[in-house]
Each structure stands twice: as structure tokens, then as C-alpha cells.
Amino acid sequence: MATIIVEDGSIVANANSYVSEAELTTYATDRGVTLTTSADVLIIQAMDYIEVQSYKGARVSSTQELSWPRSGVYVDGVLIASNEIPKDLKLAQMATCLSINAGFNPLAVVDRATKREKLDVMEIEYQENANDSAYMPGINRYLNKLLVAGSGSGMVAMTRVY
After folding, report:
1. Residue 47: exposure state from Cβ atoms within 10 A (0-12, 13-18, ≥19)
2. pLDDT value at residue 140
3. Residue 75 — φ and ψ, nearest 5°?
4. d(CA 99, CA 95)
5. CA-CA to 51 of 20 to 30 Å: which in 45, 77, 84, 90?
């Protein structure tokens, strides 16, 4: 059982999460989801995904455990305080927890795409150009404003040359 230590923006020693177990439980309950895996395990697994992202701005301190807090991050034209953990980051972590709880880990190995499966009279064929695996777009919806453009956020910086 992991001990969850929440980063609150003050550069908490040994922090390993942006949300508490209580916050995750409330988030899940509010959405009618019953957690089948312990909250602490889901939180740690979700952090594996959250922490590999390329975020805007810079870490506030070279000694902080996690990617946040950060300085120089603007969201919708508003500067995020360098001692703040953005709400969207916390929501992304909790959405990732629910995704993992449902069996869809964004860091899991993706098997080959199936073209056709047939078992007796039952047959499955996946649409051409379909995703190779199930995914939860809500996670990236929360993260997009916090990520560096072109870092998997679905945004690409373009320059027109005349």
C-alpha cells in the first residue's frame, strides 16, 4: 500500500500525487463509478502517465519531486501562479485513474490491430483506420492547455513561408 503525498504547490517533500485518495473517491462517486482497484494504486499508476508529459513553462525548483508547480505557464491568457496546481491537471490525473480502473491504461502495451476474428458463427472486424486500442479522450481534454504544442497534445505549431 502506497502512502499518497499530495503536492499542493509548495514543493512538498516526497510528493507523489496531485490528488488525495479522498479527492479521487469523491470524483469517482460523483460519476457513478465504483473503484475496483485501491485508490492509492490507481493514483500512482496514473502519475506514471501524468509525469511523462511535456508541460509548458519550467519547474519552480530543481529539487521538486514532480513536474508541477511550474512557472511561466499561461492558460487561456491567464498566468498560472508558480505555487498553484492547475485544476485541469488534477482532473486529468483523476480521469486517468478511472481509465485505468476501467481497464484502459494509457501506458499499456498496444497489441496488433485486429482485422478480423471469427469464432464459430461470431465474427468481429474492426473499421479501417480505427484506433488500435480503446482510449479516453477526457484525459487529454484536461491536459491539452498545459502541454507544450506538438508534444502529443494534438496541436502542431505551423509556420507559413511566403
Report:
1. buried
2. 84
3. -125, 120
4. 6
5. 77
pLDDT of residue 113: 62
pLDDT at 45 over 90: yes
For residue 117, pLDDT over 80 is answered with no
Name the pTM for this structure.
0.79
56-109-105 Cα angle (round to 5):
60
Are 10 and 83 in contact by the 8 Å Cβ rule? The answer is yes
Long-range contacts of residues 6-11, Cβ cutoff 8 Å, at least 24 apart: 7/64, 7/65, 7/66, 7/68, 7/69, 7/85, 8/85, 9/68, 9/69, 9/81, 9/83, 9/84, 9/85, 10/83, 11/60, 11/61, 11/63, 11/64, 11/69
Average pLDDT for 70-92: 97
Q: For residue range 13-41, list pLDDT tens digits in order.
A: 999 999 999 999 999 999 999 999 999 99
Please report where in the chains the cell 530543481 appears, as a residue: 62
Residue type, 32: G
Closest by Cα among 131, 155, 157 to 143: 155
Label residue 125 exposed, middle or buried (CB < 10 Å: 0-12, 13-18, 19+).
exposed
